[in-house]
């Protein structure tokens, strides 16, 4: 599933790791990835971007600098579900995007 509007909604949320507002990117969960494939856009959560003098949570997470692989695999589904709930609770779920079960 690819949905630009949903990616933008996710990126508008504060970072789910450190809580910093207005600097998030839509980060894909690592499950479902492989050989150049990204996970579905339904498997997104907000993670802050790099900025001058500060390495963001998104790049630290991708580089394995925040959590072990096992911890990340346990945390990502929680972040994804929380992100989906927030967007749905705000009444912003895109009409043309299937809701996860």
What does this structure look like?
- It is a single chain.
- With 101 residues, the protein is of the alpha+beta class.
- The protein is built from 3 helices and 2 strands, in the order αββαα.
- It has a two-stranded antiparallel sheet with strand order 1-2.
- The two termini are 14 Å apart.
- The relative contact order is 0.21.
- The model has no long low-confidence stretch (mean pLDDT 93).
Q: What brief labels describe this structure?
A:
alpha+beta; 35% helix; two-stranded antiparallel sheet; 101 residues; globular
Write the layout of secondary structure elements.
Layout: H1 4-11, E1 24-28, E2 44-48, H2 57-62, H3 69-89
Antiparallel strand pairs: 1-2
* Overall radius of gyration: 13 Å
Order of SSEs, N→C?
HEEHH
Distance between the termini: 14 Å
Which structural class should the secondary elements be placed in? alpha+beta
Helix content: 25-40%
The side-by-side strand order for the widest beta sheet comes to: 1-2
Number of helices: 3
Number of strands: 2
Unreliable runs: none
Beta-strand fraction estimate: 5-15%
**What overall form do the CA principal axes indicate?**
globular
The biggest beta sheet is recorded as: 2 strands, antiparallel
**Mean pLDDT across every amino acid position:** 93
Describe this structure in a few short sentences.
With 101 residues, the protein is an alpha+beta fold.
């Amino acid at each position: 599933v690819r949905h630009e509007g949903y990616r933008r909604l996710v990126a508008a949320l504060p970072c789910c790791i450190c809580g910093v507002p207005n600097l998030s990117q839509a980060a894909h969960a690592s499950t479902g990835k492989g050989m150049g494939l990204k996970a579905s856009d339904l498997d997104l959560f907000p993670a802050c971007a790099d900025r001058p003098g500060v390495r963001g949570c998104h790049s630290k997470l991708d580089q394995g600098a925040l959590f072990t692989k096992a911890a990340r695999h346990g945390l990502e589904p929680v972040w994804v579900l929380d992100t989906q709930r927030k967007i749905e609770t705000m009444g912003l779920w895109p009409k043309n995007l299937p809701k996860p079960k």
